[in-house]
UniProtKB/TrEMBL annotation:
UniProt cross-references to InterPro entries, sorted A to Z: PsdUridine_synth_cat_dom_sf, PsdUridine_synth_RluA-like_CS, PsdUridine_synth_RluC/D, PsdUridine_synth_RsuA/RluA, RluA_PseudoU_synthase
Keyword field: Isomerase, RNA-binding
Name recorded for this polypeptide: Pseudouridine synthase
UniProt similarity note: Belongs to the pseudouridine synthase RluA family.
């Protein structure tokens, strides 16, 4: 029999692990790091919290050896993002359980408050949502979307869950699928773009493809072609800032409505009234649930502005797939 793991929500947020035969004489530190995959940072934090880490209800040294049947408990404190002001906001909830919240973010809203912009963010709306339900969590998005990009944003409800998903992202085991509308007709119907990205030395807010940059890989598939544009499905293999926008511009097919990465040969003026920014939507994310240990798939439908854009492109289409 292997050791078993269970989350007990009745005691704040408590993760319980019952040692199995294979845990005989295994150190507590090893159980935490290897069996429960607790980071050193979180482990250190819990060591200084009363009852943060216990074995059979008692506090032990990290080098203490366990025996089968011992109960290891991690008690994460209830936290809140006190600096984020709760603010009423209509939220499109895609998924929620005791550990995760997934929201369909509209274009035109930033995920987290920034200097000089501490209201009207997704975080403000989520904090209000939790407040109205009598719940207290810290706002912990596991990934970000650009302000003008719509779609799935996943938020962890405690530090342990956040770290486990962050590890999946680092290991590139999270699948993130986007839908974009780009200028022009791509030469290939599908391909993998492997082109390193870094800041533009002349403008640090902009990213460029450069040999000295960080590895960046994007796979794409053309879903449909129109008269002068294409609908493309993209999958991120890495997570560089503005990666899709930079890679598509580098191919010579910038996203429709993308002012930052536009090319002079394409005219965005006909689409200005339809779009708040670039025509990019985070359609789907697939990840391993940190507690249930099973894959979950979260999808967000295309927003109204992209459906209107598609209709406009269809009216002028001369080819399709």
């Amino acid at each position: 029999m292997n050791g078993t793991r269970k989350w007990d929500t009745s005691k704040q947020h408590t993760l319980r692990y019952i040692a199995g035969p294979e845990d005989e004489d295994v150190k507590l530190r090893t159980i935490l790091r290897q069996r429960l995959q607790v980071s050193r940072r979180l482990m250190t934090k819990l060591k200084f919290i009363e009852g943060g880490i216990t074995v059979n209800g008692a506090r032990l040294y990290m080098d203490a050896k366990l025996k089968p049947g011992d109960v290891v408990e991690l008690r994460l404190p209830v936290e809140t993002s006190e600096t984020i002001e709760p603010q009423p906001m209509e939220l499109d909830i895609l998924y929620e359980d005791d550990y995760l919240l997934a929201v369909n973010k509209p274009a035109g809203i930033i995920v987290h408050p920034t200097l000089g912009h501490d209201r009207d963010t997704l975080a403000n709306g989520v904090m209000y949502y939790w407040q109205q339900r009598g719940e207290s969590y810290r706002f912990r998005p596991v990934h970000r979307l650009d302000e003008e990009t719509s779609g799935v944003v996943v938020i962890a409800k405690n530090a342990y869950v956040h770290e486990r998903i962050s590890q999946q992202l680092q290991e590139h085991t999270v699948q993130k699928i986007y839908i974009a509308y780009v200028h022009g007709i791509l030469e290939r119907s599908s391909d993998v773009i492997s082109a390193p990205i870094d800041r533009d030395p002349e403008n640090p807010h902009i990213r460029i493809v450069t040999e000295s940059g960080y590895p960046a890989v994007t796979a794409y598939e053309v879903l449909r072609t129109f008269a002068h544009a294409s609908q493309v499905r993209l999958s991120l293999k890495t997570g560089r800032t503005h990666q899709i926008r930079v890679h598509m511009r580098w191919l010579g097919h910038p996203l429709i409505g993308d002012r930052m990465y536009a090319l002079p040969e394409y005219d965005d003026e006909p689409y200005r009234a339809l779009l708040p920014g670039q025509a990019l939507h985070a359609q789907k994310i697939v990840l391993r649930h940190p507690i249930h240990d099973e894959d979950i798939q979260i999808e967000a439908p295309l927003p109204a502005e992209l459906l209107r854009l598609q209709s406009m492109l269809e009216q002028g289409a001369d080819s399709g797939r």
